[in-house]
Every structure is written in structure tokens, then in C-alpha cells.
Amino acid sequence: MNAFLESLPKIELHLHIEGTLEPELMFELARRNDVTLPFDSVEQVRQAYEFEDLQSFLNLYYQGMNVLYTEQDFFDLTAAYLKRCHDNAVMHTELFFDPQAHLARGVSISTQVAGITRALDEAEATYGITSGLILSFLRDMSEEHALETYEAALPYREHFIGVGLDSAEVGNPPEKFERVFERARSDGFHVVVHAGEEGPAEYIKGALEVLKAERIDHGIRSLEDPELAKTLVERRIPLTVCPLSNVYLKTVPDMSAHPLPALIEHGLCVTLHSDDPAYFGGYMNANFLAVQAAFDLSRDTWRTLSLNAVEAAFVSDMRRDALR
Ligand code: ES4
Ligand code: ZN
């Protein structure tokens, strides 16, 4: 069964490119850019990856990405991730980047987008992996800053397919970003929103009704509101669930307590992804194997999860047929 899961063709729909920064590359880029890291070794970095909650992870995540400066850095980061995609039988990936986190260090959106898209183009040519880039706003910053960032990104609009919302959830409800999401939607961008990871089901409702999210990232607290769950089922709104992320951030006590089986049983359009694989114990295959070890899902259920991802992907009809 593990060999079956490892070779199963996959679609990644919830992945933060900055969350693929492995400690080895972090050190290499620190050396290249003369950045002093608060760690002495790769082992020490890995030992620091003990998280209590989302915020304790975000602190290390934002610190780690401080080594990214040049177009080549963004290329190297993305190329390393795409090699992992190839090794994990990922055929299509829709990845987030956090432009505001890099603008804060004086790195232009042009530099970020150029490095990331050069790697994406190269992976399509060498591995046949297709992709889409999603510009994610940091919800713990102001909506004004999100709007300014959106404006700064518009000259590169042909390089991204949608907008997302991530970072510290509790206290930063979706409603805070109504104007910028309305703007992006009217410009023809896809809309996805992190909701119901640490935050309540109420935030999922806000993401859906106010921001008009086409997919909910995480959404593992959906069943806490039966009326909401019913809407999600009826409207076939995908939930991009990241099992190892939820365990590492103690959103669930352990994998056996994960609501995944209940979400599937409920008829929700669940898909499985890796979120920040350098920080959460592994890439797509690691997530699939961890789920299988905990729940022993049938091949039929795996087939359903795969087809859900085909349905949830932002691709052309032709590419969707090829992925099926
Ligand atoms: C994130 Cl796991 C998670 N949750 C919210 N925002 C994020 N950004 C990167 N990883
Ligand atoms: Zn995420």
C-alpha cells in the first residue's frame, strides 16, 4: 500500500514556498548573503522545530526566510521544492508566496516573482510539472498594506493565478480584508483563504460569504457548524487539509484525533497537502503515509481524495482531463 501511495499521481494545492526552506539551504543562503543566523548548525535548526501552536511556528518561519534576497535565492528555493515534487509524483502544484514578508527586507516583488517563475517554467520543461502561483496576504498586517502590496504586484499579474490569506488567524477574521479581496476578484483572480485552522468555524463562514473563497485552506473545524458543513458539501467547496501541519502545530492532539475521516465521511471535498514541509516532517508522500498509518484508508477513498484534488485545481479543462 505504501508503494501504491508513493507512486500515486498527486496535486499539491496548499504549499507555502517559504515553508520549503530546508535548513541546509538556509545555511547556504545565509553564507551567500552574509546573514547571521541565530543557529550554529543544521541540527540545531531542526531541534528548534518544536512548536506549541501556529504563532510559535510563524516566528521561526519568518526568521528562516530572512536569508532570501536575490532572484537566484528565490529560484534555488523553488527549484529545490520542485525536485521534491518530482520525487513525490506531484504533477501539478499551486503554491503560495508571502510578498509582504520579503518587501519588509527591501526585496521587490519583481525579484520574488522572477526567481519563483523561472524555476516553475524550468520544472514544466524538465519534469512536465504544471503550476500556479498564489499571492498570499498576511492577515496580521493591515488591509491597507495588503492593498498596497496588491497594487505593487499588478504589473506582474500574468505570473499569478489568485490571492490567498495566511499567517496568524485568531483575531484576524476574513472580514478585515473584504475590500482587497473584492478588488482581486473583480480583476479575475481566484480566491482562497486560510480559515478554520486555529480559528473558529465562524471564520470559514466569513471566508466563504464575505471574501467569496473558492477553496478553504485547512477548514478542519468545519464540522463544528453543521449548517456551514452542509453549505460546503452542497457547494463542493474544497478543503485543502494538511495533516502533518495540524499535528506539528498541535491543532489536533495527534494524527489519530484528526477530523479527516469525519470530514470525508461527511461528503466534504477534502484534498491532502503539505503546507510547510521543511518544518512539518515531510512533503506530500510523508503526509499520505502518515494518514494511511493512522486511518488505513481504502484504495477507493484514496481515489476519491485524488479526484477531489483534480476537481479543486485551478487548471484548464484540457489539463484537468490529463490529471484525471
Ligand atoms: C502557515 Cl500552517 C500556516 N498557517 C497560516 N499561515 C501560514 N503561513 C505559512 N504557513
Ligand atoms: Zn497554509
Automatic annotation (TrEMBL):
Zn(2+) binds at H14, H16, H194, D275. Its cofactor is Zn(2+). Gene3D superfamilies: Metal-dependent hydrolases. The keyword Hydrolase applies. GO terms for molecular function: hydrolase activity. Coiled coil: none annotated. Keywords: Hydrolase, Metal-binding, Nucleotide metabolism, Zinc. Substrate binds at D276. Catalyzes the hydrolytic deamination of adenine to hypoxanthine. Plays an important role in the purine salvage pathway and in nitrogen catabolism. This is Adenine deaminase.
